[in-house]
Design a protein that fits this description.
Blueprint lengths: L1 E5 L2 H18 L4 E4 L6 H12 L9 E4 L1 E3 L10 H8 L11 E2 L8 H14 L5 E4 L21 E4 L2 H8 L11 E4 L2 H6 L2 E6 L5 H9 L18 E6 L4 H6 L5 E2 L1
Parallel strand pairs: 1-10, 1-11, 2-3, 2-6, 3-5, 6-9, 9-10
Antiparallel strand pairs: 4-8, 7-8
The protein binds 2-amino-2-deoxy-6-O-phosphono-alpha-D-glucopyranose (GLP).
2-amino-2-deoxy-6-O-phosphono-alpha-D-glucopyranose binds next to helix 5.
């Protein structure tokens, strides 16, 4: 596992974007696993700028997103489909037919999970998976649990995630309680994994995930099972405890 501490959010975003841009240059028809949340927004801005400068092309890129809220249509401005269009897909030369998210409007959870797993398999797996991290260590919407879901799953969001996500909604009553999430197995099977984390709120969970026990109670800790292909980019605030308590294990950029 490589853990990089960057000076600020902009530098974190630029360094993380280098990894994705490198993947696109190396394999122009890569399958990118994408994430939502506030953490990757700067990274997406970087990718848009590089696409507009002609440095990278998304023409043959395929994408699979980690997750989607249940009950929200793609045109709802809180859906992850909407987020991806606004932050990336509308601004780059991607063919939207090649972009994929779980369908939050499918009420048949078993069918939707099976469809999404079959889709990931039909694409030949994921070349690089981008992740944020929840305050409780969730990746995608794989919440702390006694069990590990390998495939796509229908998740009841924990109270902590529900409250963290409420900031984006006009009213608490609008915040979905359920989501579809790509499973931990699909994430760990990606050929490379890139996690971005910024802000002091993430400092404790980063230390717990990467230096505490490997446990399904801290889903991000499972990344250590495949540590050779994992790259963590944190800004100084999120990386503060890593730098303070594990200085030998981090690379300061
Ligand atoms: C949501 C998403 C996650 C994301 C997390 C952290 O719960 N499902 O994929 O990593 O929030 O979000 P943020 O980056 O805004 O802290």
């Amino acid at each position: 596992m490589k853990i990089y501490i960057c000076q600020n959010y902009e530098e974190m975003s630029a360094h993380a974007a280098d990894l994705i841009a490198g993947q696109i240059k190396e394999k122009p028809d890569s399958v990118l696993g994408l994430a939502t949340g506030s953490s990757p927004i700067g990274l997406y801005k970087e990718l848009v700028a590089r696409n507009q400068k002609g440095e990278i092309s998304f023409k043959n890129i395929k994408t699979v997103n980690l997750d989607e809220y249940c009950g929200l249509t793609a045109d709802n401005d809180q859906s992850y489909a909407y987020f991806m269009n606004q932050n990336l897909f509308n601004h780059v030369d991607i063919d939207k037919a090649n972009t994929n998210l779980p369908d939050g409007t499918n009420p048949d959870a078993a069918a939707e999970c099976a469809r999404y797993d079959a889709l990931i398999e039909s694409l030949g797996g994921i070349d690089i998976q981008l992740l944020g991290i929840g305050l409780n260590g969730h990746i995608g919407f794989n919440e702390p649990s006694d069990t590990i879901s390998l495939g796509t799953n229908h998740v009841a969001l924990t109270q902590s995630t529900f409250e963290a996500n409420a900031r984006f909604f006009a009213s608490i009553d609008d915040v979905p309680r359920y989501a579809y999430s790509m499973g931990c197995g699909s994430i760990l099977n990606a050929k490379k994994i890139l996690l971005v984390a910024n802000g002091k709120g993430k400092a404790e969970i980063l230390e717990k995930s990467f230096f505490g026990p490997v446990t399904s109670q801290v889903p991000a800790s499972l990344l250590r099972l495949v540590s050779d292909k994992v790259y963590i980019f944190a800004d100084k605030e999120a990386g503060a405890l890593l730098l303070e308590n594990h200085p030998e294990e981090v690379i300061v950029l």
